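A further point concerns the way the authors explain their paired sequence and structure data. Nothing conveys this as quickly as seeing an actual entry. An entry of this sort, consisting of the sequence and the corresponding backbone structure tokens, reads as follows:
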Amino acid sequence: MFVQVQFNNGYDTRYRLLRLKYKVNLRSSRINTNMKLTIAKCLFVLLFGFISFNTWAQEITIELGPDEIGLNETFNIKVTISNDKIKSYDQFPEIPGFQKQGLSQSSSMNLINGQMSSTNSIIQYYKPTKKGRFQTGSFSVKINGNDYASPGKSINVVDARAAQRTPGLFGPTDDLFGGTQAEPEFIEIEDDAFFASTVNKEEVFVGEGINVSLAFYMSETNQAPFQFYEPGRQLDEMLKKIKPSNAWEENFNITSIQPEKVTFNGKNWIKYKVYEAVFFPFSEGEINIPSVAWEMIKYKLAKNPTFFGSNRLEDFKTFYSSGKKIKVKPLPPHPLKNEVSVGLYQLRENFTDLQVQTGEGFTYNFGVSGEGNINSISPPKANQIQKLNTYDPNVRQQINRGNGRISGIKEFTYFLTLNEAGEVKLADHFNWIYFNPNTEKYDTLRPKSVIRVVGESKVNQAISNQRLGGIYDLIELEDNKLLNQRYKYYFSLFINLLLAASVILLAVLIMKKR
């Protein structure tokens, strides 16, 4: 007995299988339970090895539909793989004059002369749009990571004709049970679903956050089967349309689509959020969130389900969200209205009362926390006080994205020194102005921290430790030898005489020319 195996490199390898015939006459009175278990294990090993060996005999074929079909019939491209599963596949080709109708998958198993084999198929259906002769052209389909080519064929589409039974539609299963199967009829189930974009505000101030989300909704009573179709690619295309150019985006970066139960209009829904972000507009005017399309795989179900073959047909349905418009208002008049942050903020400090020695350095944290565009928070304004020495702050920020809002903290850490004893209120030194959209007013955050400085004055010591710069930096570099001022006088006299002689010579030359 020979089995021919065709691999991807095109070479045929023949393997000879030796049939081993075992005759086992077992009598229950002569063997015990242990013997039965041993025989069962041996049979299982032989069967497993036989099946494993057969799975090597993989072959992929591409079958094209009939040469002639009616206008009311469908053409199909069928890819069949023997003794393996279809793990992945690429898009089937487009055919001029035809429209893709969806995909279906089928599988079968045969047991002939003690040998078991299986086939798995994927079928792409095409519906003709007009009569005429059309060419598929040569094409290739990627199955399980490998490309398989077909030369194509010519298809003649004629007038619509009465439906006929298609013999052998289910392949070997027809012979297994006797008779043939008609082409299954698929019906579309009415769905109760929609795709929508939502915003939490229809009017905001410049710099105020707007939450925007896109989600697919399906009622709990929905019976139509859906599946997401390339959500990453679709989302990339949508973001190019909905992202406003005059706003800062804080994306929630949804990595997996999770169901969420919601209730509105007295009905229970399952919400699948695909995108969420908060936009902070830079300027007044209007932000438009356009209507966008979202495509879902919607399966058609077989009208008469069967045990073998596919009982559902892959199809597509496109949903459209409604557009949104958000009005952006200017901030009220203020000298700093183009510089302040907008949001709901509070001040966080690392101490309220601190006692230090004169000349002793310490750190002070001016933290702005709350809801708003944390990235846009600028350092507080510092008023220069002679006895308080400050340095540029270190900055740390943390942004939280959740519950439909952007919140967090931006912390400015200062290193301070005081050289005079006394009480210093940091409210006299730091302040931070922002706009509160809820009250529609400007507000100021001022520290409550008080520093009590004790010890002797360190002002003179601080001055002596400071780098004076300028001429003082040259003291160590200049020569300490005295210069003779008489040489300087003679040099100046010589230069003056030389200049006078040059003038007289020039005057003489001019007189001679006349």
Remarks:
- The mean pLDDT is 79.
- The CA atoms of residues 259 and 272 lie 5 Å apart.
- DSSP finds five helices and 34 strands in the chain.
